[in-house]
Amino acid sequence: MPKVGMEPVRRRQIIAATMAAIHKEGITRATFGRIAREAGVAPALIQHYFADKETLLLETFRSIYREFTAGMRRRLALANSPQERVTALLEAQIAPSVLTPEAVNTWLAIYALIGEYPLLQRIEHAFDRRFLSTLSQALRAMGIGRAEASDLAEELAIFIDGLWQNTANPVTFTPERARTLLYRVLQRLLPGQHFSPPADQAPRRAAEDAALSAAAQQFLRDYLPVASMAVSHSSIAGFRSLAQTTARPESRAAVKRHQVSLSRHSLAGIETLRIVPKSARAAGAAGLAQHFYLFGGGYISGDPEADLPISAGLAERLEAVVFSPSYRLAPEHPWPAAPEDALTAYRAFVATATEPFAVIGESAGGGLALAMLQAARDEGLKLPAAMVLLSPWCDLSGGNGFANDGWDPTITAQILRDAARLYAPGHHQHPSVSPLLGDLRGLPPAFITTGSRDIMHEQVYRLVDALQAAGVAVTLRDWPGLWHVFEFYPALPEATTSLDEISAFLRQHCSIEETPL
What we know:
Elements: H1 6-25, H2 32-39, H3 43-49, H4 53-78, H5 82-94, H6 101-111, H7 118-140, H8 146-166, H9 175-189, H10 202-210, H11 214-223, H12 236-258, E1 260-267, E2 270-277, H13 278-281, E3 289-294, H14 308-318, E4 320-325, H15 337-352, E5 358-362, H16 364-379, E6 386-390, H17 413-423, E7 446-451, H18 457-469, E8 474-479, H19 493-509
Parallel strand pairs: 3-4, 3-5, 5-6, 6-7, 7-8
Antiparallel strand pairs: 1-2, 2-4
InterPro entries: AB_hydrolase_3 (IPR013094), AB_hydrolase_fold (IPR029058), BetI_C (IPR039538), GDXG_lipolytic_enzyme (IPR050300), Homeodomain-like_sf (IPR009057), HTH_TetR (IPR001647), Tet_transcr_reg_TetR-rel_C_sf (IPR036271)
DNA-binding region: 31-50
Domain HTH tetR-type: 8-68
C-alpha cells in the first residue's frame, strides 16, 4: 500500500527551512516570516503544523537526532565485526550528509538554549544513553572490559561533540578532516585494533539518483528524510487512517486510468475484490485469464482497493481478471489468520480458475504469497504457472538488517519491527511467517522486483539465492535508485516500465497471446 502523505513532507520542508534560516540569520532573527520565505510557503502554514517558534525549534532539534539514529541503524546493518560496529556508530555522526553547515549551526544555536528547555535536555540525555550503551557493547565485543569500554565510549562521545563544534567553521574544518581525525584517535586509543573507513556509497548513490526520472528525483526531494513513526496497539487506528487517506485518491484514479470495473466476490467466504478490464468485459469475462493478487501493508494495514495502482494496471495490460482477497489483519487477527485466509481463498480460486494463472504479491503480500504457495504445494493444490513478487517481505525473523533504513523514502525499519511484533509475536522463525526460512522447492518461476534504495533489498537477494538453490527459475529486476514497491506511484516513468516488464513476463509464462507493450 502507499506509504507516504503530504503532511510529513511539509513538516520536513519547514524544518529544513528552519535550519537554513538559523544558519543565515541566527536563532533570534529566524522568525516564522523568514522561515516561511525560506520554505516558499505562507507563514500560516507553519503555524498550522507548529503552534509557536519554541515548538518548531524543539522539533528541529529532535530531527537532528533522528537523522543520527537513522544513520547509525543503516551503518550497523552493514557491520560484520565489532570494529565495524564501532566505526558505524561514530561515522554516522560525522557523515557529510549530517555535518552540513545548516545542521551544525542549528544544533549549536539550539544547544546553547538547552538549559531553558527540559524537553531538549531529555532528548539529549536519551540519545546519549542509547549511544553510549551501544558503543560500549561494541567495544566489549572486541574483548575490552566493561569499565574500560564505558570510559572509552565516553571519551569518543566527547571527541565527536568536539568535532561538531569545530565544524561550525567549514573553511578550515571539513567533514573530511573530521573523518581523518576520528581514525587517528581510534588508532591511538585502541592500538592493535584495525579500523578502516567503510566503503563510501555516496558516489554510487549520487550516480543512481542522477539517472532517475525527474519525477523520481522530485519524489526523493519531497520524502527524504523519511518521517519517523512507531506503530502499536494504541496507534494502529491512526496509522491505518493515514494510509487510507493517502491511498484512496490514488485508488480512484487508478480505476479511471486503467478502465477497470470492480465487484465484490466471495472465495470460500473470504471477501475478494474482482478487477475486470472494461475493454475485455464486452467479450465476456469468462474467457479471460485470471490471476490471484495479495496486497501489502505489513500485515497490519492495507486492503485490495489500496493496491489498485498495481493490480488494476496489470488487469488492463494483461486483459485479465484479477482476484484480490481481503485477508484479516493484525493486531486484531494475528498470525496465522492471514495465511489461513489466503490459502482458503486460493483453494476456491484454483477450483474454478482459468489456467494457466499467476500469483502476484507486493511487500507483505509477496511474503504471504510465498507462504501460501508453500502450503498449497504441500496440500497438493494446483500451483500457478508463475509468481511475481514486488519487494517481498519474506523474513520477519530479524536475521538480516535493513541497510537502506533512512534511504528508502517510503518506510522505516521501525515500522517493520513494530508490524512484525504485532503480527506474529514469538513466531517469527515459523516458515509461514518467514517463508524465506521454509522449503522453496517445487515453486513456479518467479519475477522479483526491488530497487537499490528498497528497505527489503538484502532480503530480496537472499530470497533469489534461496530460490535458485531450490531449483526455481528466477528473473530479478533491481532498479538503481528506486525504493520499496515504487510501482505504486503512476507519476514515475520507472513504475510504468516495471509494470510493463511484469506483464511481459506473465504473458510469456501464462501462455497469454503476446501483444505490444
